[in-house]
Design brief:
- It comes from Arcobacter venerupis.
- Its EC number is 3.5.99.7.
- The modification N6-(pyridoxal phosphate)lysine is found at residue 34.
- This protein has 285 residues and is an alpha/beta fold.
- The protein folds into 2 domains: 8-27 and 129-283, Rossmann fold (3-Layer(aba) Sandwich), CATH 3.40.50.1100; 35-126, 3-Layer(aba) Sandwich (Rossmann fold), CATH 3.40.50.1100.
- The protein is built from 11 helices and 10 strands.
- It has helices at residues 32-37, 39-43, 61-73, 86-90, 94-101, 131-148, 164-172, 186-196, 218-231, 240-253, 272-283, and strands spanning 8-13, 16-22, 51-55, 76-81, 105-108, 119-121, 154-157, 176-179, 203-204, 260-265.
- The structure holds pyridoxal-5'-phosphate (PLP).
- Pyridoxal-5'-phosphate (PLP) is lined by residues 32-34, 61-62, 125, 159-166, 236, 239, 266-268.
């Protein structure tokens, strides 16, 4: 099974050259940055643990990845949500559908305040210290590639939710790591960084305007289709569209033409199934 060492591919987008780290290709079931963040739990044994508990949204990529992890490790999986939309209950799809097929026990209720010692609690979106193990491996893959290709002036970009992946990449890489806030705003992201590390934070690129996570924007749909057309790569809807808007603008604002740019594709493509339906309904009818 291939849970590490994804390929790096050269692409041209709007007449600019970029490299893309294809973490979406790691493993069909356990891929993207959740595979990196939960790698610690995949490779270690927890003989006293019978169940994993987490919480978040009913369409989350982390939820699906945890359901895969629990299936691989023979653990039970309780997942707490505030609310499951009735259309989703009636027509399960995307992360929700596949997590249920992996025997996720989804609970619409508040998270318990106490867990017994056979339960392992994983915070929302995998924002935890243990995530650093898998992200260090990702950083080492990038370092090896840069050395082999004699690249010194590398800039790395990836969009953030909790910021955990960007933060640990910066910790383990000698190159500048840039990111943008997709879930909260820039202040939220800075606070998230501080929870895990005091300093050496990634550079946050300011967004042109405020976007709300999970909402539909015409410019997101357009850049998604354009990326697909020009690079033949499918990127995720929730993070990558805003990510590419920020990254492209940042790149075009640099006068220095000597840098090499690497974008990290963090997977999340199962979540696209429901997003694509919503986009088609809103903009293609
Ligand atoms: C979870 C996720 C992110 C955000 O990762 P953080 O480490 O929380 O910043 C970005 N892209 C995709 C596709 C994800 O699934």
């Amino acid at each position: 099974m291939n849970y590490t060492n994804s390929p790096i591919q050269k692409i041209t987008f709007n007449n600019q050259k970029y490299f893309v780290k294809r973490d979406d290709l790691l493993n069909p079931d356990f891929s993207g940055n959740k595979a990196r963040k939960f790698y610690y739990y995949l490779i270690n044994d927890f003989p006293n643990i019978k169940k994993i508990v987490s919480f978040g949204s009913a369409q989350s990529n982390a939820m699906y990845s945890l359901s895969v992890l629990c299936k691989l490790k023979g653990l039970k999986f309780d997942y707490y949500v505030d609310h499951i939309a009735s259309y989703l209950k009636e027509n399960p799809l995307g992360n929700y559908k596949y997590a249920l097929e992996n025997k996720m026990n989804i609970i619409e209720n508040e998270l318990p305040t106490y867990f017994d010692e056979e339960t392992l609690f994983i915070s929302e979106g995998g924002a935890l210290k243990e995530a650093s193990l898998g992200i260090e491996i990702l950083a080492n893959e990038i370092k090896t590639w840069a050395i082999e290709n004699k690249i010194e002036n590398l800039k790395i970009f990836l969009p953030s939710g909790t910021g955990t992946t960007a933060l640990y990449l910066q910790k383990y890489l000698p190159f500048e790591v840039l990111t943008c806030a997709c879930v909260g705003d820039e202040d939220y992201l800075k606070k998230q960084f501080l929870v895990l590390e005091k300093d050496n934070h990634p550079t946050i690129i300011q967004r042109e305007k405020k976007y709300h996570f999970g909402k539909l924007y015409k410019e997101f749909y357009e850049i998604h289709k354009e990326l697909k057309k020009q690079t033949n790569i499918e990127f995720d809807f929730l993070y990558d569209n805003l990510g590419w808007i920020c990254f492209e603008k940042y790149r075009n604002s640099l006068n220095d033409k000597n840098n090499i740019f690497l974008y990290i594709h963090q997977g999340g493509l199962i979540g696209n199934i429901s997003m694509l339906e919503r986009y088609k309904f809103k903009y293609d009818k």
